[in-house]
Amino acid sequence: MQRKIITLKKSNSSQQNSNSITILSTNKNPTKPNIKISPYYPKQYSKYKSLIKEKSFNNAKAKKTIERFLSRFRLANVFDGIKIKNDDVYFSSIQSGYEASIKFFLAFTAYEEIVSCAVLLKIGSHGYNRKPLQEPSLQKVKGNLKLKKLLLMNEKNKDEMQASLEKFYTTSSSNIIPFCYGIRNSFAHGELTAMGSGSSRGKSIPMESQDLFILATALLEYSETVFDKCIALLK
């Protein structure tokens, strides 16, 4: 690509001289720099943007849903923790638990949006929301007795939710979605705390917090596969 040299001259009235600043630009139009796509978007994001540019996307409601998904997906991906003041000794002891809960919550909001889009586009039946978790993490999550008690004893659970949670805990079911809904609802409405869920013990990252991070990653990965299916229908 041809390289342009742009010279800016700055006058100095007190010394009656001038300084030159040379900028090397590889962009043919310096006012419109090349923008690198964030690596925190889904891998097929460029294809989606091409569809928009080519006006191949004519479902306005699905488009709005995908745009919300992309914003939430990127936020969940870039979230790497929370910053606290060094003198807050109490909160530093439960920080990892809250970080895991927030990461999970952000990932689940992205999942909800892309599943809504899949429903709009009539993708599959109900199979797209049955993503299993890796077996070791699944068993550790089921083995968190504090979290189990909190979710099953939540009086705000509707009958269908309660039945799904009981099935998740009492059978060999690997359908994590009822469990995820339970965590999402409990965290959003205030019942779920890091200490109360057994996901925080001292300054080290407890296993339960690590499992929630793994759960968040699983949701984001699966959300990306649903996103791929959605844009495949919009070519």
Task: Describe the fold and architecture.
- With 235 residues, the chain is mainly α.
- Helix 4 packs across helix 8 and helix 6 packs across helix 7 (177-188).
- The protein has helices at 45-53, 60-78, 89-120, 135-142, 145-152, 159-170, 177-188, 207-232, and strands spanning 4-12, 17-25.
- Strand 1 and strand 2 (17-25) form a beta hairpin.
- It contains 8 helices and 2 strands, in the order ββαααααααα.
- The chain has one domain (41-232).
Brief characterization of the structure:
The protein is mainly α and 235 residues long. Helices cover 54% and strands 8% of the residues.
What is the rounded Rg?
24 Å
Number of strands: 2
Q: What is the molecular shape?
A: globular
- Biggest sheet: strands side by side, in what order? 1-2
How many helices? The count is 8
| Unreliable residue stretches | 1-35
Biggest β-sheet: count, sense, barrel? 2 strands, antiparallel
Secondary-structure-based class equals mainly alpha
Distance between the termini: 31 Å
Sequence of secondary-structure elements: EEHHHHHHHH
Helix proportion range: 40-55%
Strand content: 5-15%
Q: What number of domains?
A: 1
Oligomerization status of the protein chains? single chain
Any descriptors?
disordered N terminus; 54% helix; 235 residues; mainly alpha
Q: Topology, please?
A:
Elements: E1 4-12, E2 17-25, H1 45-53, H2 60-78, H3 89-120, H4 135-142, H5 145-152, H6 159-170, H7 177-188, H8 207-232
Antiparallel strand pairs: 1-2
Helix pairs in contact: 2-3, 3-7, 3-8, 4-8, 6-7
